[in-house]
Amino acid sequence: MIANLSKINLSAILMVVVVLAATTSHYVAAWGCYDKQIHDEIIACEPYLVGKTDEPPTETCCEQVRGLSQKASITEGHNQFAYCIAIRDCCFNFGFRKDRSDQLPKLCGYTPSIPITPGLDCAK
């Protein structure tokens, strides 16, 4: 009976490991952004948004945030709320400066459907 119980526990642990391995590719926690898609679209702006450089955002950064804004504008309902939370969390975890985030739409020439800024209120 104890041997059977050990097999069940081992099977349960193995199943948890498999599930975690399958879902971890979606997350990029090491960079402070838990949604890989948003991470990939926002990472080019990181030097500007955290204040590592006094240079304006790069064209790559601007292209990425325009694409992110476009995707956010066509996302609806509960999915838009989840998208907003993911963007907000990435901004907060990266340590983006609000003053830089506020300047980004003007510098990159776009109107944000969801602002890329820490402290974003996703309930609105």
TrEMBL record:
Do the record's keywords include Nucleotidyltransferase? no
Q: Could you say which residues form the signal peptide?
A: 1-30
Top-rank taxon, per record: Eukaryota
Keyword check for Signal: yes
Pfam families the record matches: LTP_2
The GO terms this record gives for MF are: lipid binding
Annotated GO biological processes are: lipid transport
Domain Bifunctional inhibitor/plant lipid transfer protein/seed storage helical spans what residues?
Answer: 16-112
Q: Which UniProt keywords apply?
A: Signal
Q: Which family does it belong to?
A: Belongs to the plant LTP family.
Quote the protein name from its UniProt record: Bifunctional inhibitor/plant lipid transfer protein/seed storage helical domain-containing protein
Species source reads: Kalanchoe fedtschenkoi
Taxonomy, top ranks, is:
Eukaryota, Viridiplantae, Streptophyta, Embryophyta, Tracheophyta
